[in-house]
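Complex 304.
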Amino acid sequence: MTQYNSIDKTIDCAPTLNDTQVLEFCKNGYLILENVVSEEINRKTIDYLNGDLQPDPEYIPNGLSEKDFEGMRHSHEPSILILEKWFRENVLMNNALSGALRSLLGPNFGLPVLISAHSVECPSAAQPWHHDADSVFGPELNYLETFYYPQDSPIEMGPTEILPGSHISKTTLDYDESGLLAAVPAGSFVIHHQSIFHRRGKSTGSGKRHMLKYNYWRTSEPKKDWLDDPEFDSQTANYGGHNEARYFAHMFYWLNGKGDEYRIIGGQAWPWSIKHQIGPSYGFGKTKGYLPDWRKNNSDGYTY
Ligand SMILES: [Fe+2]
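Predicted structure with fe (ii) ion bound:
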């Protein structure tokens, strides 16, 4: 059961992802949960965003007044929605979402404090590809960005387009290719690594498409307390391709609480592996070696 701590505004519940699913998130940088919010709550959210439902906040945060509320409500950052009990219980603390977030952010993770409403009138051109402002590239996973779609968002309605695996380094190319279109039915969430390369997709349909974006926060040190996958072996797991496996594995180690121990020796050694080898990769569990160069300061891609 998902529990809310009203004092420090945190959430706790049981984790729902296993080793393989946590590593898949490290590799992809996103996770989609389809159709997990009820139609009634989706409708209520749209009514609220359209100004057809009166606010009824659970409490008034220090330093804010009802006048501030009005300004906030009609802005592109309607964060007072966080204060609506029905929204907190059914959207922010949604069971499927909370279980996935708990697996990646640890116990007692923090509720959002800011909501951005990405509402667009369709048809509309695609946004330029970008990493969100102030992105950090590194093995740490201290927060997660969540998109909530209260209405059907098929390809015609310009869902978010993502470049999977692009959360590990700044994409400097003038990228003009298509990515993965996160087309989802109403009541869906897309959880992103905040640094993933993305854009709002082109829309050809008509009408207004709402999407809400907000971040959840880690409040505990990382450690492996998600579900066990009996088939999972961290030595033989697939960590991805050349020039990326080292980063995905580092992130996975950090989540396991072993980020400081992580060392690699490069070449064909672990975490690199490929289908046609006849035994596990050398170099697993090395305590001397290199770290991947997240800052891109070294021509060989490794630091000390
Ligand atoms: Fe963005």
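The longest strand covers residues 143-149.
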